Amino acid sequence: MQTMLPTPTPGGIYSELVRRQRAELQDAYMKGVRRLRWDAARLAAERERRLRELLVHAAEHSPFWRERLAGHDLANFTEADLPSLPILTKTEMMTEFDRILTVPGLTRARISEHISSLDGDRYIDDEYRAIVSSGYAGTEAYHVYGWDSFITFVMQGSRWTGRRGEDPAAVLAQCFSCSARHESGAFYAFSSFEGGGPTSHCFDATLPLGAMVDRLNNIRPGVEALQGWPSLIWELAQEARLGRLTIKPTWVSVAGELCTEPVREAVRSAWGIEASEFWGCSEGTYAFPCGVGEGMHVADDLVILEPADADGNVVPYGQPAARMLLTNLFNPVQPLIRYDLTDAVTMTDEPCPCGCAHRRILSVNGRIDGVFKYDGGAVVPRADLEQTVVATPGVVNFFIDQNHGGVDVSVVTDGSTDLQQLRTELSDVLGRHGGPSTDVDVRAVDSIKRLSRGKTRQFDTEAV
Q1: pLDDT: is 157 or 252 the higher one?
Q2: Lower CB density within 10 Å: C or N end of the chain?
Q3: Is-contact 324 313, C-beta < 8 A?
Q4: CB 155 within 8 A of CB 28
């Protein structure tokens, strides 16, 4: 069978589409802001309504979900019934990609061809957008959004700004990925199209540090808000402390990697402010701090997040979870139901002092994503190794590679890390799981290799 390639969108038509979609975003934004004021009961009713609509649509239009949802009373399905459904993993989602999507003609082959050929922001068939996520382990996944669902996704990233009282006209510099293949680049291209919003600059996180510093210094008017991966913000803060980076941001936010205490301290030292951490994923959602209560508010009107243990069992709010399961309630094109995000988090449903009833992620503690397997049958969870490294004082960033006799660990530090103590603790972790510990090497490095989107890679991607 001949593969259908994406239908190219001529420049003129593309401009018309973006203008129309941006205009529709304004209405979605106002509705989304109002939902930040809904009480918990109204939010729960909204989730239940959206969940039933999603399940019915998925069962009718997706062969994969038709089989998986068979035998369930979808018209009366509730949020409490979700644990009766299996978890959807990234591997399964990519393997079953064509059968999961609900739009005839949209296939993994077409999406892959579209993403690989992107040289800027473009639609598929004048309606759909596709992005690729790599994650911190470097394994790719595709995510497809229809017209309305893309608007909703973008809206999530903007509606909290006004609630926190930040200046919507502040000059912003984003240091993530500028490629429309990735979420941050696609959002930047869409939001900055022909102006119409605050002055915004995008700097690819893979740029040499010196080049990024020069470009940030030369922005006029000067940068007032700075966003980026935590590991990159740490490097920029060091440049500011040394006098090479001269911008004076009044707001710094980080996302996409674990934000360690040395990163927060570097921001305080360089600019005299606290770093603001937000959380997001290419699968369709964000969580933002309110500036009053602890943690980050999730989009309780648009997604369901289930904190779960390593085996997939839902854990009570307030207890640390090993993983988080996402049900995206607003994207019927690619239904993600109990999708495993592998983020280790702690969530709460306790009232927030700010008055917003949206539940909160109190902390992102790491990822549970794969294991190291050794000769003799020993299986060592990568999460145990990660948590040991992250808990070590002075560690900013890290990379863990498996070797025959243990692990090779590279760490970026603030200079205070006891490398010998970390080596001993990692050996203990390996030993507890029956793994070898004859060759555990820990060394300090200046930086960790970045993936194509600029995020650093924390693990050897060849591991299971």
Answers
A1: 252
A2: N
A3: no
A4: yes
Helix axes 209-217, 230-241, angle to 10 degrees: 70
The single residue listed with the structure tokens 């560690």 is 395
Residue-range domain boundaries for the chain: 11-156+282-367, 159-277, 371-444
The CATH T-level fold of domain 11-156+282-367 is Rossmann fold (3.40.50)
* CATH number of the structural domain 159-277: 3.40.50.980
Is the distance from CB of 343 to CB of 283 less than 8 angstroms?
no
Between 147-156 and 11-35, two packed helices, what is the crossing angle to 10 degrees?
50
* Per-residue tokens: 228: 């980026």
Mean pLDDT across the chain, nearest whole number?
A: 90
Residue 157 scores a pLDDT above 90: no
Q: Cα dist. 53→10, 74, 75, 194, 424 in Å? A: 34, 9, 8, 36, 53
Per-residue pLDDT tens over the stretch 324-372: 999 999 999 999 999 999 888 999 999 999 999 999 999 888 766 678 9
Confidence of residue 458 (pLDDT cuts 50, 70, 90): confident
How high is the pLDDT of residue 2? 43
Q: Which CATH class is domain 371-444?
A: alpha beta
What type of residue is 388? Answer: T
DSSP for 372-440, please give it: EE-TTS-EEEHHHHHHHHHTSTTEEEEEEEEETTEEEEEEEE-S---HHHHHHHHHHHHHHTT---SEE
Read off the pLDDT band of 463 (50, 70, 90). very low
Strand order, beta sheet including 296-298: 279-281, 285-288, 296-298, 360-367, 343-348
Retrieve residue 15's tokens: 């401009």
Would 11-156+282-367 and 371-444 be classified into the same CATH topology?
no
